[in-house]
Amino acid sequence: MIEKQCALDIRDHALKAITELTQLLNTSKGGCSQEEYERIKRGIGLSIGKIQTDVLDIVYAAHPELNDLS
Fold it and tell me: 51 near 17, Cβ under 8 Å?
């Protein structure tokens, strides 16, 4: 089982990464072609999905109390 402090650190970094990726999407809008934007948006969406399923879901399974959305 993941130690609680480690789980907190992982969660915080993962959520920060999601925030950064979201800001990247906002930054790219208007700065590239629509086709490029759509490709970037897809990549960001896939990346956020991987962070959720491969990182946050593991943390929340070990420490459900850390999930602010539940």
Answer: yes
Domains of the chain: total: 1
- CA geometry: angle 39, 23, 33, nearest 5 deg: 35
pLDDT tens digit at each of 70 positions of the chain: 999 999 999 999 999 999 999 999 999 988 999 999 999 999 999 999 999 999 999 999 999 999 988 7
Q: Which residues span the domain enclosing 11?
A: 4-66
Q: How many residues does the chain have?
A: 70
- For the chain, the 3-state helix, strand and coil shares in percent, each to the nearest 5, are 80, 0, 20
